[in-house]
Amino acid sequence: MRSMNSIKLVETLVFLRVHWHYQTITVPPQYFFCKCCFHICVFQDVLRNILDLNESVIQNEEFVLCVSGGKLFPGSIPLAHRYGGHQFGYWAGQLGDGRAHFLGEYTNRKGERWELQLKGSGKTPYSRSGDGRAVIRSSVREFLCSEAMHFLGVPTSRALSLVVSEEPVWRDLFYNGNVIKERGAVVLRLARSWFRIGSLEILTRTGELDVLRTLLDFIIEEYFKSIAMNDPDKYVVFFSRVVNETAHLIAHWMSVGFAHGVCNTDNFSLLSITIDYGPFGFMESYDPNFVPNTSDDEGRYSIGAQANVGLFNLQKLLELMEDTGADFTMTFRQLSEVTMSQLQTGSIPPSMWALSDLLSHEYFRDWVQLYLKRLMESDSDAARQHRMQGVNPRYVLRNWMAESAIRKAEKNDFSEVALLQKTLTEPFVEQEEAERAGYSSKPPSWAQQLRVSCSS
C-alpha cells in the first residue's frame, strides 16, 4: 500500500506527513489488567514527571492503543523526518525515519517541551525495503537502557512504554541468511528534539541551502536560545556549542563504560543526547578495543575510539585492568566501597571480586601506593566513599542481563524486565532484589558468548 504524504513544517524535504493505517499492533483484552503485565511495561517516572499522568492511565484502553500505535493521540499529526548520514565512514545517502513516527510535542507543567515518537510502529516513506517494525529484543534493550542512562546521569532520550505483540516479525539476526520469526514490539520514546547531524547533512549534500538555513535558524531559535538570532556568527557559535556538548556526552559515555555501537552521523543528536539505542554495550572486562556491534568488523566504533583522554593515575589503573581483564564497572564501584585500611593491608574481601582480580598484577601495589597518597590529601575515608558511590554505579544494563530478561519476555514472563526497570532507576544504590539476581556479581560464563547486531 502506498503512503500518502503532505508537506509539514519547513519545506518539503524535512518532514513528511504520514498516512496512518492503524495496523501496527493488535491489542488483545489481556493488556488491560496491570502496570507491568505480560504485554505492556511503563516507566512511571516518565509517566508522572514528564507527561503529568497518573499511573491509573495504564488501565485505560485508549492509552494502550495510543502507545502501541493502534490509535493517534488527540490532535496528533504523524510525521516522518528525512535525514541522511555517514555510516561507517561512508556517505549513505537519504535515510530518514524508516520505522519511527513523530507524534507531536507535549509541554508539561514544568514548562519542559518533549517530542513523542513511536518506534516500530510501521512503514513510512523512508522505510526503503524494511517493514517498519521492531522486534522484542531490540525494543526491550532500548526501553531499559534509555532509562538506565538517565539515572546514571547521562544525557539521553527517554522511554515511556513498551508494548509487545503476538504478531510475527521476520529478521536475519546476523545477516547470514538465517531468517527467523520473532515477536514485534513498539516503544514510545521521548526527547527534547530528534534532530541529528544527518538532518543537516542531507540538505548540504543535495544543495538545498535555503532549506538548510531555514532549518538551522529554526533549531537555533528553538533549542539554543542563548544564541542571538541577529548574531552574524550565530552558525559558528552553534557549531562550537554542538562540538563542546558532544565532547561532554562522550565523556559521560566513557565514565560508565558505554559503547554506542553505531556512531554514525544519523545517530548523533544535535542536542548532544544519547539516541538510537541499537547494538550498544556496557564494557565488562576492560578492553579499549571493545566493540559491541558484530556488524562493525573493523572496530571503527570501539569504545576506545569514542574518546582518548585520561589522567596519569587513571591510565595506570586502566593498564592494570586491561592486563587482568578486570571488570570496568565493578572495579570503580568496589574502589568506592573498599576502605583505606583494606587497601593498605591488601586484605580485599572475596565479595569485592573485581578488585580481587587486580591483586595478582605485578604493578597493583605500586598503583595502590599512588592512589593512597592521593586519598590522604582529601577528606575522610567515609566522605570519600560516599562521594565515589554517588558517581560509580553498582548496576548497569549488561548484555547478559538484558538477554536474560528478553528470553523470559519472549515467553510472556516480564518479571525480569520489571526487576530491571526498578533496579536501573537507582543504579548507585545497593538493592536486595538486584543482589539476589546477581546483577553486581561476576558475569556468568555464557555472557562472553553473547553478540548483538544492527538487526532489530
From TrEMBL:
The keyword RNA-binding does not apply. One of its GO terms (molecular function) is metal ion binding. The keyword Zinc does not apply. Residues 442-456 have a biased composition (Polar residues). Its cofactor is Mg(2+). Residues 431-456 are annotated as: Disordered. Keywords: ATP-binding, Magnesium, Metal-binding, Nucleotide-binding, Nucleotidyltransferase, Transferase. Pfam families: SelO. InterPro entries: SelO. Transmembrane segments: none annotated. Belongs to the SELO family. This is Selenoprotein O. It comes from Cyprinus carpio (Common carp). The lineage of its organism: Eukaryota, Metazoa, Chordata, Craniata, Vertebrata.
